[in-house]
Write a structure and sequence with these properties.
By secondary structure, the chain is of the alpha+beta class. The protein has one domain. Helices cover 58% and strands 18% of the residues. It is built from 4 helices and 6 strands. Strands 1-2 form a two-stranded antiparallel ribbon. Helix 1 packs antiparallel against helix 4. It is elongated, with a radius of gyration of 23 Å.
Length: 134
């Protein structure tokens, strides 16, 4: 809290409340971010599948999403596993001189990034509200 004292031109600031709130922010932000990451990796996987070309369905069927949470890192991946993995790379990037890549993963990423960014910002804002800092 900031307070002016009488005729002093001095400002006193008590940061104990702020320190207490900040100590509560990290766990709340982490909890909110984990929830966002889980939802967004599912959304991203669906986007990649939607943009993937479908001839046999094997490419789309090999697309999966996973999350990884540790003390220092929160990650999400959308990957193509198994035999379709090599094919996925070729379809994405193409083969020089014979096949132009379709950029289906890049297109899905372009559509997913704004939603993911908004969800992260909202989650941090929610965590700040819950701890009384916003």
């Amino acid at each position: 809290m900031a307070a002016f004292r009488g005729g002093d031109s001095r400002i006193e600031v008590d940061l104990n409340d702020v320190r207490g709130a900040l100590a509560r922010v990290a766990p709340e932000v982490e909890k909110e971010l984990r929830s966002v990451v889980k939802k967004q990796v599912t959304s991203a996987r669906k986007e990649v599948r939607a943009f993937a070309p479908v001839a046999t369905g094997k490419l789309s069927g090999g697309i999966s999403g996973r999350t990884q949470f540790t003390k220092t890192r929160t990650q999400a991946f959308v990957t193509v596993k198994g035999i379709p993995a090599t094919y996925a790379w070729i379809v994405e990037h193409g083969v020089k001189g014979s096949f132009e890549g379709r950029k289906y993963i890049a297109k899905a990423g372009d559509r997913t990034k704004p939603r993911f960014t908004k969800a992260v910002n909202d989650a941090v804002g929610d965590a700040l509200k819950q701890t009384g800092l916003k």
